[in-house]
Amino acid sequence: MADSEGGFSDPSILENLVASYGVVGAVVFGALVPLLFSIILVGKKKVKQRGVPVEVGDELGFAMRNSRYTELVEVPWEGATTIAALFEQSCTKHSRDPFLGTRKLINREFVTAGDGRKFEKVHLGEYQWETYGEIFNRACNFASGLIKLGHNVDSHVAIFSDTQAEWLIAFQGCFRQNITIVTIYASLGEDALIHSLNETQISTLICDSKQLKKLASISSRLEILKNVIYFDNDGTASDSGFSGDLRNWTVSSFSEVEKLGKENPVHPRLPSKTDIAVVMYTSGSTGLPKGVMMTHGNIVATAAAVMTVIPELGSKDIYLAYLPLAHVFELAAEIVMMSAGVAIGYGSALTLTDTSNKIKKGTKGDASMLKPTLMATVPAILDRVRDGVLKQVEAKGGLAKKLFNIGYKRRLAAVEGSWFGAWGLERVFWDAIVFKKIRSLLGGRIRFMLCGGAPLSGDTQRFINICMGAPIGQGYGLTETCAGATFTEPDDPNVGHVGPPLPCAFIKLVSWEEGGYKTSDKPMPRGEVVIGGFSITAGYFNNEEKTKEVYKVDERGMRWFYTGDIGQFQPNGCLEIIDRKKDIVKLQHGEYISLGKVEAALMGSNYVDNIMVYADPLHNYCVALVVPSHQVLEEWAEAAGIKYKDFSELCNKEEAVGEVQQSLSKVAKAAKLDKFETPAKIKLVAEQWTPESGLVTAALKLKREQIKNKFKDDLVKLYERSM
């Protein structure tokens, strides 16, 4: 219903309004008529209690539980105590329903940019679906094939691949033989990859074909590896790049292993809830990654708890999967979807929308083709969606911009007002006039979004709520808690918190005297966030010292994990994350600076795509490395008449640095940051920080040590310049 230029207005409705009342009249009508209905519905906003205090058996800390459950939730239904049982029972119940969908690759080509760099573009077709019953049979066949291939069931299997249907099939297949899976990020560097494979003594590795070259180059450093199974569904040559030292490995395609198992079925060997299902290697924000040991019971408990939060979850839903399955957030989300009989369509971050980098012009992106009702995301992606929409609105200008601004303000007032959700008259009006086109970016049918991996700003959450017309379930959790800690509820219109405890966990705050956070603080208790319950994992693989440092067991046998995050409970029992112990630096004059808090505030500048604040304890101020937004900075340079050859040269110009610095100062003042929290000097970094560069994690969190090492000379110069 958008106009031919991609605006956000509906011509059939808008033209009638303009014809009848003129431009001003149409705007007034749009603002006032729905308001007349909303006035009738105004009532006193009632605060719902979402978390309630609970005694946890010791005197240490202040604890909360979910208000809807007096006992912790452990399973979604009786008998589903392991991932294997959950998978089999769900496949039996939904045997004829679509389960996993993958787009057909029609062709790929490489285009050369003006600077000589080559980019891959793909033409993708419709989604091709397999049912729950068909996927169960494939998983059983793969399990049998794995055994016939010679894999020892007492040794681990690693999956080193991007997210795709075969990833989940291999994952479930291994559990048919009670084989522990080691998950490894596809973007992991060589040293971390070698460490992960050798530490867990991997004998069989499953990967996508593009990883074969990387494996060949490090083959001499892999001690135990015997079998390599590659996914052969991406249209690349099966043995490309595998001409190096094979070290007597057996190299097989995934389809070959499935065929072998189909011809030689093996009786299943199913796990118990206390068996280790997954050793999940973190992306290593500091040093080498640690392997977190998750039991079947841990993962099932998180899935059972999240299923209680997402409204009306079931086989009518379609979930868009594109985040890394090696990350606990995406893995937990897909197990939730599987448990509820949801159809899962696979995509990628580079093919997500019609304008994504890897999509060939004229080809639909994954979201447009799939039209999902559910999807998971991380704050960095939502921030980019928000920025992209605002830029399009600004570029469109005129009546479309006026209507967008009025519609957004009216919807925002409705969301924050006392009649949230009543009748929906104003919502329907503005959705038809303004927001329908925006929602088409993600297929137009999104009804609920899951967000995790990092804090989501209140402004972005509101923006997505309104423009996408869907609540965001913001989750807080860690790999060590199987992502199961807190989750915002869909009927909660408030922002700035991460929700009440999930029904599988207790959340406890423990005073941190050194940082000045105490459970006796008024008006709200504050302290280190400690999580206990069924989702708390078994510890770190081959690292008993670190396990004992952050995992504790109380007198009742309940396991607790000390997160290092600082939180406070809001009056309604929801948790708010306010700091992190590792991110706090004590400056020369005794002031404490929270790097994460400052970075979150400074991200409010339009010039900032990413930022790392650095504080040297020997000084009384901080500095920052800033990755600027290419488009925003280049638009400023053009308007200011700044001449430059490339973006790197622009970032080194004093005028550009000064402009961004001035913007940061304004944002810092608006956020009420102290003077010592505002960077005294900054360095503009031309290249973006990506997981592939090793400077951010797969969830786009900063890897501080790696960034500090890469830019150590620049940080030294910043302090020298500030003296």
TrEMBL record:
InterPro entries: AMP-binding_CS, AMP-dep_synth/lig_dom, ANL_N_sf
Gene Ontology MF term list: long-chain fatty acid-CoA ligase activity
Gene3D superfamilies: N-terminal domain of ligase-like
Pfam family, one: AMP-binding
Keywords: Membrane, Transmembrane, Transmembrane helix
Protein name from the UniProt record: AMP-dependent synthetase/ligase domain-containing protein
GO cellular component, one term: membrane
Lineage: Eukaryota, Viridiplantae, Streptophyta, Embryophyta, Tracheophyta
Transmembrane segment boundaries: 20-42
The AMP-dependent synthetase/ligase domain, residue ranges: 120-541
PROSITE patterns per UniProt: AMP_BINDING
Database matches in CDD domains: LC_FACS_euk1
Coiled coil spans: none
